Structures are given as structure tokens and as C-alpha cells.
């Protein structure tokens, strides 16, 4: 049975974030909104909290530590199997989880995905939490301000951006993807073209592309706007 609540009263929310500043700010904001709130830093901490705290909703970042560390998707996938009644929200800088975790990863069914740069107030998170508790959610993403313009790339380009953000060289990217160096360089150049970073001699396109990726300004073809054009590899 859903908890009786006025505002957030009676609703337990677990917020999982490895950055201490963000964890404190959002955790305090959720508490001020009336939710009974607990925070965790890692997937391991979160799983312990799920047992002891028994949350109604779990909000988690995607990246919860160095490469190879269990992610927010790993946490929500486990909850989907063991506690499917717990609502799940991913709060991330990325417009598609594959930008952070790879092209073969996705969110469990019913999990909402909120882009941090689209959140203008705590009220938007509160609405998303309430939607998680509705028998038939009002919307998958909550009601947010009009979606800002962002750049759309193909799955292969998204994978290359993720590898560049991890610091891999062109040679390492070629080895990782199992392609020739020339093909990797061509794919990287097409990625820069999709981001309008070519023909700009005063900037380093690799640095700017990674910063755009980290700022949530890039989506994949599936998550992006069709009117920005077909950017698939030929």
C-alpha cells in the first residue's frame, strides 16, 4: 500500500551519490521538502541502506566511482529483481546512460531518467518522486522546463566520446573497438563534425568534446531530436 503523505510526509527516499557536495545539497533539499531521507556513497552502501531503511524511492547518480565500479544502473537493476515495488530515478549529467556506461547498457523498465542540467528547482525532483509512487505514473521523465537544444550523435560516436572522456588515445580507441587506426581517426573526426567542432583553429576539439559530454550537452540518436539531422555513420 502506498504511504499516506502530505508533501513528502511518510515517503522514504534514498539518494545515492559519490560526490559529497551534491549528496549533501540534494539530501538536505529532499529532507526540507518533507521526505524521510537517507544518503549513500556507493552501491554497496546503498544496498545495506535498502535493507535497513526500506526506501519507497531510490534516486541515484550513474557514475559512482572509478571505471569498473558498480554503477547506478547496477543498483537499480538489482532492485528491479529483488524489490520491484521500489521506485527508481537516475539523476545524471548524461542524456543517455550509454554515454557513461557503454552502448550495451540501459535502464531497467519503469526507471525515470532526469538530466541534472534540466533540473531548475527541487520541486521538479519532488514531482518525479511523487510520479514514482503513482499506480500509473503521469510521465516517464516528470514535468520539466522545455528541453534545451543539445547535440545528437550515433551510438558509435557516443562510444568514442566515452572512451575519449576516459583518456584513451586514438590508438587505444582503435584497439578497444577492434578497428584500424585510420577507421578510428575517421570516426573521431565525424564525431567532431557532429558537434560542430571542425574548422575552428583556436580550440582543441578533443577537449571541448569531452567537456560537452561531461556537461550533458550530447544525446544519442534514440534520445535526441530528429530535427537535428541523421548523424549515423555511413
Architecture blueprint of SSEs:
Blueprint (H helix, E strand, L loop, with lengths): L11 E5 L3 H13 L3 E5 L2 H11 L3 E4 L11 H11 L4 E6 L4 H5 L10 E4 L6 H12 L17 E3 L1 H11 L4 H8 L3 H14 L10 H10 L3 E3 L14
Parallel strand pairs: 1-2, 1-3, 3-4, 4-5, 6-7
Structure, briefly:
By secondary structure, the protein is an alpha/beta fold.
Walk me through this protein's architecture:
This protein folds into 2 domains: 12-133, Response regulator (Rossmann fold, 3-Layer(aba) Sandwich); 151-228, Winged helix-like DNA-binding domain superfamily/Winged helix DNA-binding domain (Arc Repressor Mutant, subunit A), CATH 1.10.10. It is built from 9 helices and 7 strands. It has helices at 20-32, 43-53, 72-82, 97-101, 122-133, 155-165, 170-177, 181-194, 205-214; strands spanning 12-16, 36-40, 57-60, 87-92, 112-115, 151-153, 218-220. The protein has a 5-stranded parallel sheet with strand order 2-1-3-4-5, with helices on both faces. A two-stranded parallel sheet has the order 6-7.
* Beta-strand proportion: 5-15%
CATH architecture label name of the largest domain: 3-Layer(aba) Sandwich
Q: What fraction, in percent, of the residue positions are helical?
A: 40-55%
**Unreliable residue stretches:** 1-7, 136-148, 223-234
**Number of structural domains:** 2
Q: Tell me the structural class.
A: alpha/beta
Number of helices in the DSSP assignment? 9
CATH superfamily of the largest domain: Response regulator
The beta-strand count equals: 7
